[in-house]
Write a structure and sequence with these properties.
Blueprint lengths: L6 E3 L2 E6 L8 E6 L10 H12 L3 H4 L3 H6 L2 H28 L6 H9 L1 H32 L9 H21 L1 H31 L4 H4 L9 H14 L16 H38 L3 H9 L7 H30 L10 E2 L6 H13 L7 H28 L12 H20 L3 H12 L1 H9 L8 H11 L1 E2 L9
Antiparallel strand pairs: 1-2, 2-3, 4-5
């Protein structure tokens, strides 16, 4: 007769298997209905989008667009057009996310349209490089602003990396503890950065009301005649909007995704577009074109002029809030690709397990955080982001291609929304340009290395995923993780209650 359950809570039981023929007792974990909860509504979903799009760039150095366009008028047109292009992408992703209601962003869409290999190469790149390096960069920026409030000789790297590491660990604990808590943190810090930007917008309107309109009256004077210059301006603008797709990574945790995913995608991108345009108008009105182009900390200099030096000290605090919120959103959404890929047995299955008490994907959060911490060790990982930037846009393009393919292969499936086909085509062309542009503009061998890394994922895919030669090898590790972290399998179950 089996021994009684050692513990039982939230549908998880730990039982001892009887001893047979001298075998050692074996503990098994039985899971019943463990799954991530739908804790995100429209407000928290919109906060994920807004909070991850708006990082530190709009506060520090939003000058790339003005530099390339050469005029006030054309730069504002590019900012607005960049927002509209991002909206086309967000609408296309809304169709994909309501057709295939799985988390993981592009991963399930590529899996359905292009097969397991393409989906794996996306997951490989996203999990190993894009998510942890992005989180590391954001946390290092956060650390720089924390250090700006203290006295240091020079720019010591060890304290900065320690602060960044502490921020990562804090976010990992928050996300592992409760998704509602992580969502609340996201809403709070998104609100903080929006307050800062509203202050900037209102201050600019007051400045314009005083008659300081000389800069804006220049209009399109000095606009570049170079198509490549305008194209590079769009390149800068579209990168500033990056993050508009993050809600698609957590579709399974969104309440009523058929309704809230499209609404949050549209609302988030439109809100950021309006804020970006108005914030740039405010910067131009107060600092002028020369001041904006020469500034290394735009928001701080704006604050010193409009608010005074004593009050302007709040701007670094707002940048800290902005970067901390962006890092939280990056971790919250980014780890879901690993969660879904492991659930599909393309990564160790234990990384898809969910804690039975907290109902959070603790193993994949810890795995991603460890990778991000390791990326703090090198002196400069900014170049890593640059060389893999084309990969992100390549996968955006493949996701849009997936949408077009699924229009034919799943033409009879229910689509809550179906976007006008011209929108995804336009966005696809822009994505392809952003893949090619950095390589043509500055061809370096590192881009080849980045591409080889992506394709190099096949070295692991063929033996470990396709042939599964490791079968059974990780069972002791899986059992240990299950017992130590109190986690169990979390199969995909459609549920829109």
């Amino acid at each position: 007769m089996d021994n009684p359950a050692l513990s039982q809570e939230d549908g998880t039981e730990l039982r001892k298997r009887p001893v047979n023929n001298g075998e050692a007792p074996h503990v098994e974990v039985e899971t019943k209905g463990i799954k991530l909860q739908r804790n995100l509504g429209l407000i928290s979903g919109t906060s994920i989008i807004v909070g991850t799009i708006i990082g530190s760039g709009i506060f520090i150095s939003p000058k790339g667009v003005l530099q390339e366009t050469g005029s006030v008028g054309l730069s504002l047109v590019v900012w607005a057009a960049g927002g509209m292009l991002s909206l086309m992408g967000a609408l296309s992703y809304a169709e994909l996310g309501t057709l295939i209601t799985k988390s993981g962003g592009e991963y399930p869409y590529m899996m359905a349209a292009m097969g397991r290999v393409v989906a794996y190469l996306f997951a490989w790149t996203k999990i190993i490089v894009l998510t942890p390096s992005s989180m590391a960069i954001i946390c290092l920026t956060f650390a720089e602003y924390v250090m700006s409030l203290m006295e240091f000789c020079g720019e010591p790297q060890i304290p900065k990396k320690m602060i960044a590491a502490l921020a990562m660990i804090t976010l990992a604990i928050v996300n592992s503890w409760d998704t509602k808590l992580a969502a609340s943190v996201q809403v709070f810090f998104t609100g903080a950065k929006l307050i800062a930007l509203v202050i900037i917008v209102i201050g600019g309107l007051v400045w314009l009301g005083k008659g300081e309109v000389e800069t804006l009256q220049k209009g399109f004077e000095g606009s570049t005649n170079s198509p490549s210059g305008v194209a590079l301006a769009f390149y800068d603008a579209l990168w500033a909007y990056d993050g508009w797709n993050n809600l698609n990574y957590i579709t399974e945790e969104l309440k009523n995704p058929y309704v809230n995913l499209p609404r949050a995608n549209v609302l988030g991108v439109l809100l950021v577009t309006v804020i970006y345009v108005l914030a740039n108008i405010s910067y131009l009105a107060v600092l002028g074109t020369e001041g904006l182009l020469n500034s290394s900390a735009v928001a701080l200099e704006w604050g010193e002029i409009v608010l005074g030096k004593r009050v302007a000290v709040i701007m670094p605090l707002f940048v800290m809030c902005s970067t901390f919120g962006a890092a939280n959103g990056s971790l919250f959404a980014g780890v879901r690709t690993l969660y879904v890929a492991a659930r599909e047995n393309q990564f160790p299955e234990v990384l898809s397990y969910v804690n039975a008490r907290r109902l959070t994907p603790i193993p994949c959060i810890i795995f991603t955080t460890v990778l991000a911490l390791l990326m703090l060790i090198p002196g400069d990982i900014g170049s890593l982001i640059d060389f893999f930037s084309f990969a992100a846009w390549m996968f955006y393009a493949l996701a849009i291609v997936s949408l077009i393919i699924l229009r034919f292969t799943m033409k009879n499936e229910h689509r809550p929304i179906k976007v006008f086909i011209l929108f995804p085509i336009i966005f696809l062309l822009c994505s392809l340009y952003l893949v090619v542009a950095p390589i043509i503009q500055d061809p370096r061998v590192e881009f080849l290395y980045a591409f080889l890394f992506i394709v190099g994922g096949l070295v692991f895919y063929v033996p470990l995923v396709h042939f599964r030669i490791h079968k059974g090898c990780f069972d002791p590790v899986t059992l240990f993780v299950q017992l130590f972290m109190e986690v169990g399998p979390s199969p995909y179950v459609p549920d829109f209650e």
